[in-house]
Structures are given as structure tokens and as C-alpha cells.
């Protein structure tokens, strides 16, 4: 294992931080796989999972069983990890700019489509390598006027030439679920059979330039522009993996998830071993645009009657809002036929708060599909 340090120049004197990546293999051919956790620094389960996985991979590397290269960044956001306010973590947004740490990654697709002109031919593998060179060169040209920009460029630089990118997150209270593009559906299903994901949410472009889409969407757009003339493979499968809820942090859960990721790495050909396809049931593959964001029509105490993982029908009750001043109660119900895959963890909410996310097979939204 090689441990690399990536400096992040601070925005004010005396505040420089750094990012740490762990690299396994690289001595023989195989896929290049990148995994990170903690981009939203208050989402902790994935960070513990990757430390368990680092231990497993170190043993396999010592035995010569790593093919290709596996790169792990267990703490992808030292900026957010250091933030706090009134004894609580603030890891989703940079406090100075208010920007979401998982939005506004460089969109390299249009520039790559122009620069790759004249470099494509009839060899799909050669085209893949040429595109990766162009993407890496364009990223290196990106200006880094702030520490946040440097963090984004550093993380994307570690992942831009990977065959597979997994960004580990969690929700407030949730079952395991995945986000990916339609082009990645089958690979996401294979992963979900190991991790036990209940829902796979598909969007060609969910809006906001999230980290995973910054890695995979350029390939989709390049195929749309040049694919009729030249063979362009799916150069990167990227997915956001939501590992349950914020409080689901334990060595037991993390160890099991790490073992499941290791089995998936064996199936991908990155680790030598007996291939054991995942045994969990297939997840529901549905459009992200089909999700119902169940909103609070009024503020009050929140009492759920539906649990994460429940399969709901239209009209099924999800929660009751209770006015603590006069005792009035208001029931909120599902409009979707789908799985309640995530919900609020606080038990007092304001009007307009998102109470729950319920998957749906029919698109009902458009534009930016991700939360703030």
C-alpha cells in the first residue's frame, strides 16, 4: 500500500490542510477502481467502511492478489470534517461560501468533445485512452482560486481515469440505495446484489454537477456526439452509494459492508479470488425524477407510522404532524407506489421540510433533481 499526501492550500495563512489517498496494486493489468467516503463530512458510515476495506486490501496486496489499481480516500473532505457550529457538525456545506461539497464539479464534457476531434479512430480501447488523456489535461487546466476548488480538482484528479468510481454517502435515516446514470444500471444492479440496496435511482443528469456525474456523464455526452462515427466505450461506471442513515455507524455494519465490497471487487476482477456473485435480491431500478419528496404542509412534532424500507401504495399514511400548542393532528400520505427509502431524522419540523423520499416508477419532476 502506498499512502499519498495531497496538499490543499488554505484560503488564509496558517490553515493549510491535506488529503490522504491509499493506493493498492498497480503492478499488473486490471481495472482502476476509485472509492471515497465523507465528501459530505457529516455522513460517517462510509468512512468507517473504507477503513475496514483498507485493512482487507492490505492483506490481499501482501498476498499478491490485487489486479490493476484500487485507490481509496476514506476522508474525502478535511474542510468539512473540521467545521462545526453550536456543538454540531456542519459537513454538507462549506461555511464560508455556502456551497454544497458535492456540487459544482468541473463539467468537462463540452470542452472534451471539442478537443478530442481528430484523435478518435476505429479502435475502442485507443479511443478510451485518448479521452482519458484529454479529460485529465482539461482538469489540470482548471484554476483553483479557493481551497474548495483545490479539493474538488484533487478528488476528481484521483478519479478521472478510473474504470469505476464509488462515492460513499448516507442519508438521515435510510435503507441502502444507489444513484447512477441509465448507462450504469446493470453495473449498479451487480453492486446492489452485494450491498443489499433496495432502490437504484437513475438520471442522465440530475443537475448540480455532483462528483459521480462529473466522472461518468462526460462519457455519455461524448458517445452522444461522436458515437455514430467512432466506437466509444462506457469509460467510467460511477455511482453514489447511500449507506443507510447518519447514525448507522458500527464496526459490525462497516465490517460487513467492507466484506461485501471486497466480494464485488473480486467479481470486477480487481482482487483475485473465487467469484461469488451477490446474493441479495435485485433493487428497484426507477427514475430519480419519479421520487416523491413528501413535504410538511405545516410545522410540528413528527411521528412516523411508515418505516424506511416499507413498500407503499398511493394513499398509505406515512407520518402524523402534531401541533404541540393546540394538539391538532395532520396526517401526510404517500402519492407514490414505491419504497420509502429515506426520511427525516429530527422529530420536530418546519412547514416545507422534506419528511421522506418515496421511489416511483413514473417521472414526476424535472430540472435539478438533487436536494440542496
Compact summary:
The protein is of the alpha+beta class and 372 residues long. The chain folds into two domains: 2-287, Zn peptidases (Aminopeptidase, 3-Layer(aba) Sandwich); 291-358, RNA polymerase II/Efflux pump adaptor protein, barrel-sandwich hybrid domain (OB fold (Dihydrolipoamide Acetyltransferase, E2P)).
What does this structure look like?
With 372 residues, the protein is an alpha+beta fold. The protein folds into two domains: 2-287, Aminopeptidase (3-Layer(aba) Sandwich); 291-358, RNA polymerase II/Efflux pump adaptor protein, barrel-sandwich hybrid domain (OB fold (Dihydrolipoamide Acetyltransferase, E2P)), CATH 2.40.50. 28% of the residues lie in helices and 26% in strands. The chain is built from eight helices and 20 strands. The chain has helices at residues 45-62, 78-81, 109-115, 124-140, 147-159, 185-195, 211-226, 251-267, and strands at residues 2-8, 17-25, 32-37, 69-73, 84-85, 88-89, 164-171, 173-174, 177-180, 199-202, 237-245, 284-287, 292-295, 300-304, 311-312, 317-322, 329-333, 338-343, 348-349, 354-358. α3 crosses α4 (124-140) and α3 runs parallel beside α7 (211-226). The longest helix is centred in the N-terminal third of the chain and has 18 residues, at 45-62. It is globular. The model has no long low-confidence stretch (mean pLDDT 96).
Amino acid at each position: 500500500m502506498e499512502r499519498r499526501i495531497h496538499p490543499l492550500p488554505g484560503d488564509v495563512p496558517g490553515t493549510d490542510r491535506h488529503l490522504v489517498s491509499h493506493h493498492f496494486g498497480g503492478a499488473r493489468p486490471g481495472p482502476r477502481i476509485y472509492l471515497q467516503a465523507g465528501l459530505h463530512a457529516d455522513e460517517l458510515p462510509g468512512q468507517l467502511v473504507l477503513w475496514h476495506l483498507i485493512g482487507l486490501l492490505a492483506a490481499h496486496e501482501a498476498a499478491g492478489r490485487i489486479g490493476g489499481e484500487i485507490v481509496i480516500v476514506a476522508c474525502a473532505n478535511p474542510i468539512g470534517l473540521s467545521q462545526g457550529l453550536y456543538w454540531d457538525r456542519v459537513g454538507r456545506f462549506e461555511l464560508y461560501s455556502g456551497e454544497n461539497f458535492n456540487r459544482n464539479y468541473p463539467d468537462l464534457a463540452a470542452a472534451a468533445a471539442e478537443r478530442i476531434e481528430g484523435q478518435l479512430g476505429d479502435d475502442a480501447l485507443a479511443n478510451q485512452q485518448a479521452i482519458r488523456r484529454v479529460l485529465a489535461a482539461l482538469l489540470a487546466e482548471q484554476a483553483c482560486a479557493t481551497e474548495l476548488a483545490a479539493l474538488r480538482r484533487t478528488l476528481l484528479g484521483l478519479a478521472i481515469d478510473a474504470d469505476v468510481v464509488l462515492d460513499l454517502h448516507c442519508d438521515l435515516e435510510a435503507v441502502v440505495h444507489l444513484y447512477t446514470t441509465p448507462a450504469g444500471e446493470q453495473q449498479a444492479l451487480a453492486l446492489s446484489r452485494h450491498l443489499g440496496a433496495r432502490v437504484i435511482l437513475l438520471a442522465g443528469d440530475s443537475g448540480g454537477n455532483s462528483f459521480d456525474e462529473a466522472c461518468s456523464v462526460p462519457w455519455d455526452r461524448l458517445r452522444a456526439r461522436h458515437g455514430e462515427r467512432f466506437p466509444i466505450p462506457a469509460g467510467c461506471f460511477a455511482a453514489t452509494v447511500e449507506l443507510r442513515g447518519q447514525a448507522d455507524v458500527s464496526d459490525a455494519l462497516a465490517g460487513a459492508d467492507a466484506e461485501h465490497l471486497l466480494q464485488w471487487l473480486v467479481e470486477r476482477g480487481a482482487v483475485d479470488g473465487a467469484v461469488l456473485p451477490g446474493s441479495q435480491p435485485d433493487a428497484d431500478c426507477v427514475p430519480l425524477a419519479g421520487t416523491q419528496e413528501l413535504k410538511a404542509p405545516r410545522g410540528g412534532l413528527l411521528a412516523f407510522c411508515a418505516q424506511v424500507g416499507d413498500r407503499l401504495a398511493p394513499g398509505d399514511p406515512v407520518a402524523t404532524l402534531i401541533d404541540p400548542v393546540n394538539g391538532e393532528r395532520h396526517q401526510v400520505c404517500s402519492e407514490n407506489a414505491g419504497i420509502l427509502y429515506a426520511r427525516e431524522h429530527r422529530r420536530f419540523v418546519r412547514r416545507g421540510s422534506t419528511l421522506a423520499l418515496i421511489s416511483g416508477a413514473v417521472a414526476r419532476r424535472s430540472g435539478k433533481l438533487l436536494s440542496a
